[in-house]
Amino acid sequence: MKRLLFISNLKSGKNQIKPHFSSIIDMFVAAGYEVTVHTTQAVRDAYEVAAHRGSDYDLVVCSGGDGTLDEVVSGLICLEKRPPLGYIPAGTTNDFAKSLGISSNMTAAAANVLHGAPFAIDVGVFNDRNFAYVAAFGAFTDVSWQTPQQLKNTFGHLAYLMEGLKSLPSITPHRMTVEFDDEVITDSFAYGMVTNSVSVGGFKSINGKDMELDDGLFEMLLVRMPKNLFELQAIMSAFLLQKVDERYMFSAKVDHVHFSSEEEISWTLDGEEGGCWREVELSNIKQAIKIIRPVDKAEIQKVKEEYEALDIKEQGEHLIEK
């Protein structure tokens, strides 16, 4: 009998998975798997379980938000023998699930684990840590993850602009030298992002249109420090329109990049705390982890429309509450 390790963060996304938990396990058992369940108890618990027990199983499935996925991916990357990974998104933003075309419907996502196909995705290395889809620093990192959820739901992308405009007085310029390929850039940046996802912080990535999850390349975006409210507004508008404004932004595809600064700079990895660093070495491990995703293009398009409809529904519900 095939063995399946199910790692679940029951607290993700306001306990979304709890009503579906037993039926999902039943689906796996009915498909012929001997299922071992581990519910996470603390930060880094999912990482420890994946790293120390993952190689004993034919399939690892994780359920939770982007942070849980990050931990499981980081754990599996430590293994010489890496089982394929199934993902049941149960968080607030579920950025990487959107990129992979995995449904936000719990049972549909579980069915995808059983009927989808493994797809080898790139994984990032950040100094001595791994990350699944984004490493970022600076002011707009806080905006994308700290914008109140109700504000996001009610006003959509306008919430991002509104919160960003409020942040000008508190934006700290980060003087950095960025080295990649044969280029060296030294400037004061308000924000920087190295990503492998079409969605970041619940919003579509500005680089998402040409994103490939398995090409060995990350999309890097650097935003220069705005000098005034007009420049900040232009930058935020560029994010909303998903267009790089070359007056204030620099973008490139990179497989390796080095950041250096005189002061320690705070980073986030997959939306979680990434520590403060003066030197950061970022690289891409091409096609490092196999994650199961839908194979039918019509199904992937259906999931895309599902997420768009969900966004509209949430906005409407909050407007009615108002």
From TrEMBL:
Its cofactor is Mg(2+). The keyword Protein biosynthesis does not apply. Residues 1-130 form the DAGKc domain. It comes from the Bacteria. GO terms for molecular function: ATP binding; ATP-dependent diacylglycerol kinase activity; metal ion binding. InterPro entries: ATP-NAD_kinase_N (IPR017438), Diacylglycerol/lipid_kinase (IPR005218), Diacylglycerol_kinase_cat_dom (IPR001206), Lipid_Phosphate_FormReg (IPR050187), NAD/diacylglycerol_kinase_sf (IPR016064), YegS/DAGK_C (IPR045540). GO terms for biological process: phospholipid biosynthetic process. GO terms for cellular component: plasma membrane. The keyword ATP-binding applies. Keywords: ATP-binding, Kinase, Lipid biosynthesis, Lipid metabolism, Magnesium, Metal-binding, Nucleotide-binding, Phospholipid biosynthesis, Phospholipid metabolism, Transferase. SMART domains: DAGKc. Belongs to the diacylglycerol/lipid kinase family. PANTHER family: LIPID KINASE YEGS (PTHR12358:SF106), SPHINGOSINE KINASE (PTHR12358). This is YegS/Rv2252/BmrU family lipid kinase. It comes from Candidatus Scybalocola faecigallinarum.
